[in-house]
Design a protein that fits this description.
The protein is mainly β. It has 3 domains: 37 residues, no CATH class; 113 residues, Sandwich (Immunoglobulin-like); 305 residues. It has 3 helices and 40 strands. A hairpin with a 2-residue loop joins strand 9 and strand 10.
Length: 501
């Protein structure tokens, strides 16, 4: 610093300049002095670091698989630069975590003499891998990142939950098989059920599918979930969307493929099962008009898909007390076969504001299409809700619409151009000011997700046929439908916000 000042003084003497130039040179000297002072590192023990998190928590991590990278920020909110003597993991070499400090890595996870400018910040990235054990319960691992600055120690806590798994990679099931419930199943590639074989998923069974993985059923699929222990099929991302934090990935469609039912003689029974956030939910593309597979769905939730919820082509389908919702195209597509929907909700509010990959197309939530190449069709909708973000959410494509074999009764249907047909009886048709559901969209600020329970003013309330409703005395949430003696349409019964099930 002294030599710098001497040079400027010499310059003043040499040029023998006017007072103006002497003032300019003096200003440069003063500015340079202050600039150098900014670069001086404070050694005061009163100076502290601030952090964006006091605890960094990882969502559940499957054992033997590396975690997603999490991060936190170090802030120097002081007007002097700081030199951090050490950054390290408290458990040292025994730690399950790994550090990256401002882009630098170290095999020992120890960093020395880390400089951080005045009123500046830097990132610390953290990863972990949890080793598999024989314990079926979630595993908690903990550590902390320690910072030594001017003789003081500060800490950011680290915690992660690990889950042991059954790992299946391109698994082919060649015998009748019943999965276990001791640990979740993680599916890489396709899980395939061989011809005429049956895969049974007991109550509480969880299947997590990796990106683009599918369940391909050339035989039969049975799920045996209960209200207390449903069967779950979903993507394997258990963390949250970084740019939309804290939205869980399970609310983002396209995390995996879907469930394909591919045997023309298949007999599939799904009870108390949640299938969420893939490309398709249940897809039965049968082309054999002489053999129709049978699908029975009861107390299920099929939600949030890039394309379709249920596709049943030349298929006998029964859906009871279930929710099929939020798809980029048809939520339910029916073509050929007998289709029965009782006490169910079909709702499509899929759009960019629900954090899906894009807005839905212009296809209705329910499409019933009769074609020459399909088997004879017959449809029944009783005590149902068909709704969504479009003006017309039900369409029947038939050459002879008046002769179509269908029964639609005691239901709410969102269709601006209502059908004036004898097949429709006791229907509450759409009106412009209708409020159907309690939460038909995602409210980011209030962290409220989709809730297809009828609103207190919903026109779907109190319109269900009691005889049919009595077959399903509990709604999909386990609430008694007859608590007010007037059951509602759809799979959910209205309740007050402060009312418990």
């Amino acid at each position: 610093m002294l030599s710098f000042i001497q040079k400027y003084v010499q310059s003043i003497k040499m040029f023998k300049t006017s007072t103006f130039w002497k003032f300019i040179l003096l200003s440069l000297i003063v500015t340079s002095v202050y600039s150098c002072q900014d670069e001086v590192f404070s050694t005061s023990p009163d100076k502290k670091l601030d952090f964006s998190n006091d605890t960094l928590t990882f969502d559940t991590i499957f054992t033997s698989f590396g975690s997603r990278t999490e991060k936190f920020l170090i802030y120097n909110n002081n007007n002097r630069a700081l030199r951090i003597s050490q950054i390290y993991l408290a458990k040292g070499s025994s730690s399950k975590f790994r550090l990256n400090v401002d882009g630098s890595v170290n095999s020992q996870n120890k960093f020395s003499e880390i400089e951080i400018g005045a009123n500046d910040s830097m990132f610390v990235f953290v990863e972990t891998t949890i080793e598999a054990t024989n314990d079926n319960n979630p595993l908690l691992i903990e550590d902390s990142v320690s910072f030594v600055l001017n003789g003081n120690k500060q800490h950011v806590m680290l915690e992660a939950f690990g889950q042991n798994i059954h790992l299946l990679k391109n698994e082919n099931i060649t015998e009748n098989t019943k999965f276990k419930i001791d640990k979740p199943y993680l599916i890489y590639g396709d899980l395939t059920v061989d011809s005429a074989r049956t895969l049974t998923l007991p109550a509480g069974c969880k299947l997590f599918f990796h990106n683009n993985s599918n369940l391909l059923v050339y035989g039969n699929l049975r799920t045996e979930g209960t209200f207390e222990q449903p069967v779950e099929m979903r993507g394997d991302r258990l963390d949250k969307v970084k740019f939309l934090d804290p939205v869980p990935y399970n609310y983002v469609a396209g995390q995996w493929g879907g469930v394909y039912l591919l045997w023309s003689k298949g007999k599939h029974v799904l009870k108390n099962t949640n299938i969420t956030s893939g490309y398709v939910g249940l897809y039965s593309p049968n082309t054999d008009r002489s053999n129709l597979p049978e699908i029975e769905i009861e107390n299920c939730r099929i939600h949030n898909f890039v394309f379709y919820g249920i596709v049943a082509q030349n298929t006998d389908l029964t859906v009871k007390n279930s929710e099929i919702s939020n798809t980029g195209s048809f939520t339910v597509f029916l073509s050929g076969g007998t289709h029965v929907f009782q006490q169910s909700t079909i709702a499509n509010h899929y759009s960019s504001n629900s954090f899906n990959p894009g807005s839905r197309d212009k296809n209705p939530a329910v499409m019933i299409m009769g074609l020459q190449r399909t088997a004879p069709m017959q449809t029944e909708f009783v005590n149902c809700i068909v709704s969504g973000s479009l003006d017309n959410e039900l369409a029947i494509a038939s050459r002879f619409l008046k002769d179509y074999k269908g029964v639609f009764t005691n239901s709410y249907i969102k269709r601006k151009q209502k059908y004036e047909l004898t097949q429709f009886q006791d229907i509450r048709w759409y009106q412009p000011l209708d409020t159907i559901f309690r939460q038909g969209s995602f409210d980011y600020e209030k962290k409220k997700y989709f809730n297809f329970t009828p609103d207190s003013l919903s026109p779907a309330r109190n319109i269900a046929d009691k005889a049919v409703a009595s077959r399903f005395p509990l709604d999909l949430n386990g609430k008694n439908r007859f608590s007010d003696d007037n059951p509602d349409a759809g799979c959910y019964e209205w309740r007050a916000y402060n009312q418990q099930y």
